[in-house]
Specification:
By secondary structure, chain A is an all-alpha fold. Chain A is about 70% helix and about 0% strand. The termini of chain A are far apart. Chain B is mostly helical. Classes of the chains: A mainly alpha, B mainly alpha. At the A-B interface, helix 1, helix 2 and helix 3 of A face helix 1, helix 2, helix 3 and helix 4 of B.
Amino acid sequence: MSNTVEKKRPEYRNIHVTQILKYRLPLAGKLSILHRVSGALLFLALPVVLLPLFDKSITSELTFLEMQSIVSNPLVKLVLLALIWSYLHHFAAGIRYLVLDMHMGTEKYAAQKSAGIVFAISLSLTALFGLKLFGAF
Amino acid sequence: MASNIGSKRLVVGAHYGLKEWVAQRITAVIMAVYTIGLFLAVLFTPDLDYAKWVGFFNFTVLSFPLGKILALLAFLSLSYHAYIGIRDIWMDYVKPTGIRLTLQVLTALWLLGAAGYAADILWRV
């Protein structure tokens, strides 16, 4: 019997940082890591972007106008768009987790489908808020 | 005799982390309800200006500062929720105890600072 040379198959235990891009995560896996990334972004932005803007928006009529002129800067708008996406993704994915916690939709197909729904909702709402932010309507 | 004392002590099991797990979900629901309410208020307020915007946060009911208290509860929920979430990130990726503890303490300080800042903003108006 001829013994064919065994080809070494890739073996994944813990995914190392260098493997992240090669490793094909299922949609629910992408949703999960983005849930973490979006949460971290919001955490970092809270005292340096969100609270200062909130501060200006409610302190006085004058600072309200200052806030409006800061937000009219396109670079600030881009930062806010990233945070809007973070919020919407974190929110929609979080609702999905609450539903999963109630043992609903835990089967493979249903979980994949609900992940798709989360992306559809969060991305289309981000587009809608983005268009509003950049003054399309 | 119990066989789970000393070096055989079971350090995983029921209740470890359950409080945080429940707290993260309760705080999430509080924030979701608050932000949806605020969003609807903004959506259905025509010609939103400074006076109407500040009114969402400093309205009172029978001289009780309800607007501020509701916003504060949402901010406190946010701080606790974020503390648990960021702590989970450190626990997953940072293994050396000293660095992990340092990062967790800094996270708590960052969030306590944010909550204090939010309270200060609210009680100035």
